[in-house]
């Protein structure tokens, strides 16, 4: 297990999800639910690195985004 305490997930068969852009094309940020974790990648580079989040980390991120914590304004 890596130093982060999170496993290296096998995302080979993962179903990657992304939000749709205004023109209906898939967005660049993709997520997948794998073995109780949330994996995130850049859909433009599907063979690139994958970020791994626990359920608690993901919930904190989503709540922060809803609260505007990451707004650039």
TrEMBL record:
Where does the DUF397 domain start and stop, copy by copy?
Answer: 15-65
Source taxon at top rank? Bacteria
* Listed Pfam families: DUF397
Protein name per the record: DUF397 domain-containing protein
């Amino acid at each position: 297990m890596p130093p982060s305490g999170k496993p290296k997930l096998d995302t080979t068969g993962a179903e990657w999800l992304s939000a749709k852009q205004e023109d209906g094309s898939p967005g660049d940020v993709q997520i997948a639910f794998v073995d109780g974790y949330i994996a995130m990648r850049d859909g433009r580079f599907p063979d690139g690195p994958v970020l791994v989040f626990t359920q608690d980390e993901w919930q904190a991120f989503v709540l922060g985004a809803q609260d505007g914590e990451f707004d650039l304004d």
